[in-house]
Amino acid sequence: MFEVIGERINTSRKKVQAAVEEKNAEYIIDDVKKQQEAGANFIDVNAGARIGHEKEDMEWLLNTIGPITSMPLCLDSPDPAILEMAYEMVEQAPMINSISLEKDRFDTMMPFLKGKDCKIIALCMDDKGMPVSSDDIIERAQKLINELEAVGMKQDDIYIDPLVQPISTDSTKGIMVLDAVRQIKKQNPQVHITGGLSNISYGLPERKIINRTFLTLMMDAGMDSAIIDPLDSKIMAAIKTTDMLLGSDNFCMEYLKGVRSNMIKS
Amino acid sequence: MFEVIGERINTSRKKVQAAVEEKNAEYIIDDVKKQQEAGANFIDVNAGARIGHEKEDMEWLLNTIGPITSMPLCLDSPDPAILEMAYEMVEQAPMINSISLEKDRFDTMMPFLKGKDCKIIALCMDDKGMPVSSDDIIERAQKLINELEAVGMKQDDIYIDPLVQPISTDSTKGIMVLDAVRQIKKQNPQVHITGGLSNISYGLPERKIINRTFLTLMMDAGMDSAIIDPLDSKIMAAIKTTDMLLGSDNFCMEYLKGVRSNMIKS
Q: How many Cβ pairs closer than 8 A exist between chain A and B?
């Protein structure tokens, strides 16, 4: 089953930032409940936007969200000190967003991850920047997988983000990622593939149809998780429909549920 | 580039049948022009619905359509006598819809095809009925390809229809076809894959989202043609968007044209 990481609790979103500033717990609780009802499997929590306030904002957000949901959270910060605090605050084993091959981030995150009970999003980014080919993505992913396994993480807890890039800059950017994902999954069947989709449509109009069509293609290639807005019913409908077409929805139960709840419309 | 076979000129559609009965040429001409403007590459012409009148109806339709378009037609009939007449009437090398491995149809169509300048849709149907597995589809396709090549047809003129079956009856019916198409294209890169999509959603609600999501998956597998209604702007938008994401739309020109003409909407 495809896993949805709900992206909405992020202080870079104006309304979330305002709620954090005003300690408006009701707004945050309502948003989390809506994401859960819409089918989120994880709630991403990112408190990075108010410079100098990340620690207190993360703490308040986790204190606000913790009591009202049993869903696992995705703790989203580049700072291991904040992740340590957050990790201690959550009930369920969280997902951590993220590690990469950039030397600074890699060197600070590896000691944090050692011995932790968590899932980890691993970005195919290194100090040279974004990957430039399918092989480059595959190599970076394999390096991340090997390093994470070496500190005791299971493949099933590793979520590789191949880093989707804009099709507007180069018409091969779509197949570059699709080919890489197929290969990574072939070599590491237990590893998950995740990430945001919206970079694919950067610079183009009517972006959402591009994002959800690309998600359908990515699911076929092996993507089994994504960081998206679960309140976007069209992308959720694309996920349910694609899951069914790829054989993961026995008796079309989830599809039919989506139609009954008005999420799926022709 | 993906090829659209416009399916609308079919006397099983009420309005077309009425137009044929009333010799309402204007209606037919208008419909063909709309299909052409919407991006059809072929116009399917099927006059089979009025029992006993197929020959005269086909003749009238071709006389009506011929003078107003330079687009190739797809002559859609099980009767070689009617196809012979139709073949002589058209200016451009037509597509013929269709041959299959059913003994009667195969034995009457093969002599017709010998030496003709045309494209042919070849259905993976035989006297046992629909194919029951990926391997079954692949075997039937290969048999059709071999037989057609043996009478002098080029791979590039062969359009294999793998016969999409309802996902509601069996959750593996989607991947069964997708896997088969990948394999057929791998073994015969010049051969085209075509067909209708709507069988996939038979028995389910909100069918169109299923059809167009499946089309995106089929295009990734290697389908490069389909028999659809080009006036369904959502399925045309799915084709343009998928073509772009799979690297077939340099500088996103076709996508941007689709947005400007209001065909593509988020």
A: 107
